Amino acid sequence: MRSHRRSRLLAPLMLAPLIAGCFASGGGDDSGDGGGGDGARLRVALAFPPAENLSPYGADATLLSRLGVTEGLTALDANGSAAPALAESWRRDGDKAWEFTLRDATFQDGGDVTPAAVADSLTRATDAKPAPAALAGVTLSAKAQGERVVRITTAEPDPVLPLRLSSPSLAVLSGKAYADKNRVDPVGHATGPFELTEVNGATSATLDRFDDYWGGRAQASGIDARFIADGTARANALRTGELDIAEAVPVAQAATLDEKTRRDTATTRTTSLLLNASSGMFQDAGLRAAARGSIDTSVFAEDVYEGYADPSAGIYGPAVTWAEGKRTAPVGRAEAEKPGGATVNLATYDNRPELPEVAQVVKQQLEKAGFKVKLTVREYSRLESDALAGKFDAFVLARNTLLDTGDPVAVLAGDYTCDGGFNIAQLCDRDVDRAVAEAVGIADTAKRQDAAMAAEARILGTDAVVPLVHQRIITGVADSVQGVILDPYERTLVGTGTRR
Fold first, then answer.
1. CA distance 225 to 245
2. What pLDDT is attached to residue 344?
3. CB contact at 8 A, 177 and 189
4. Distance CA 469, CA 264 (A)
5. Contact 169, 56 (CB under 8 A)
6. Under 8 Å between Cβ of 219 and 210
7. What gap in Å lies between CA 474 and CA 335, rounded to an integer?
8. What is the pLDDT of residue 312?
9. Are 261 and 79 in contact (CB under 8 A)?
10. CA geometry: angle at 262 spanning 258 and 268, to 5°?
11. Which residues pair with 344 in a beta bridge?
12. Distance in angstroms (rounded) separating the CA atoms of residues 487 and 75
């Protein structure tokens, strides 16, 4: 097994899920050049085309943050703690209120980042349907207070609000982004070091350097981004010199890249089999137990991922280093029933090239146990709405468990509770909801981690989710490129110091 790959003020009540390793760069640092020259444009390939017209409230939010377009009041540092972004500091005022002091920053359309603009942007996020995953189970209101302060109040105490506000789905946009009441337009209305100037559907996007960025002038003059769902095509384009950076290089293509152009990063991403607990055959907990019992997870890390992954441990993998010592056995599992030839409608997507192979192995194992399986593979943007609507019996999903907020409880609330906004498993279990609700209200770091693991045990006990493997992500980086951000949370890829 290969070893694991794959200014900042800490708020007093912030949690710090420890991540194995720190942010790494492809050479050099990630600081701007303070006024820099007109560096070459970066040619970047992303694995996921926009699925929601680049709405900041869903899966497309990470496309915007990875390209350096958007940012929120806070960010995550290498240890998973809340760190300043558009807010330079914050303080808690009682149980339900926080005050965030803004830095001097400018929107890409020329307006100032004011408390009123921030409050309006956050209010629109809270009103979005469906709600961003970072706001699962949370009701908040924001208002301007003076020239530099935004006051945010939550309906219930939220000890991790600064972590929550780091989510890419809570990026701050100018009022002009909301001119069309039917959609949010981030083109030219964000605050990051790179400004979207043109989007060509699901094919490509053009970005130019935003010279008035508060964090310093980016060293690259812009980015030419291509959305290439085919992983082999991404790797080939890097190898032939058409690209400078290719994200999510398939494991099968890793050996074809020169060692100097290959970076692999330990991430908090877990690939799981999700079983639809609300409709179809897997409403029956006994059949879910049978499906879970039929899966041999030991084969995925070494065989499918060729060592660029770790065997499944739970919802949280070994990159969340505190989890292993706190993990407890699943609670409340049902007795397995005989499948009786029932047909399983299994689905996955091919943006991450290993997933179809994972799904094929799952299919074979389920069939060996007596299920019949129909497998559907599509590009993710053509699959997500059906998955969220519960149209499949089973779904193979690669999910970064700390992507949305950095808080270990948030993914449980968003993915596995009755009101969760990303509940592909369609799980609605009273005991799970109660366990997650208990974890949500805990401020103490160690106690919150304990509660998260107790909730994980409840969720795994339903057999609605079967963790398969914990991934490492391979990024292809041309020899000439420096400053690529290798982020375990997969929120960032290029920054002010990324250049060639």
1. 10
2. 97
3. yes
4. 16
5. yes
6. no
7. 39
8. 93
9. no
10. 160
11. 373
12. 12
**Amino acid letter, 323:** A
Smallest CA-to-CA distance from 497 within 22, 23, 32 is with 32
Task: Split the chain (500 residues) into runs of 10 and give each run's mean pLDDT.
Answer: 32 34 39 56 95 89 97 88 95 96 98 98 93 85 96 93 94 96 94 97 96 97 96 95 95 90 90 97 97 96 91 90 89 94 94 93 97 96 94 96 84 93 96 95 87 97 97 94 92 96
Residue 277: both structure tokens together: 């607990």
Strands (E), 114-261: 140-145, 149-154, 194-200, 204-209, 222-227, 245-246
* pLDDT, tens digit (0-9, with 9 covering 90-100), for 267-287: 889 999 999 999 999 999 999
Q: Please count the residues of the chain.
A: 500
3-state secondary structure at position 200: strand
Tokens of 2: 């290969």
pTM recorded for the entire structure: 0.77
Lookup: tokens for 426: 């369609």
> With DSSP H G I counted as helix, E B as strand and the rest as coil, what are the percentages for the chain, rounded to 5?
25, 25, 50
How confident is the model at residue 405, as a pLDDT? 81
Residue with tokens 């991404």: 234
Structure tokens at 58: 């869903």
Which tokens belong to 317?
Answer: 């993998």
Q: What's the pLDDT score for residue 444?
A: 84
Structure tokens at 322: 């505190």
Identity of the residue numbered 349: Y
Q: Which residues, including other chains, have CB under 8 Å from residue 401's CB and lie 6 or more apart? A: 268, 269, 270, 315, 316, 317, 320, 408, 411
Please list the residues that pair with 378 across neighbouring strands: 349
Alpha-carbon Rg of the chain, whole angstroms? 22
| Residue reference for tokens 């065989």 | 303
The predicted structure's pLDDT at residue 290: 97
CB-based contact 465:315 (threshold 8 Å): yes
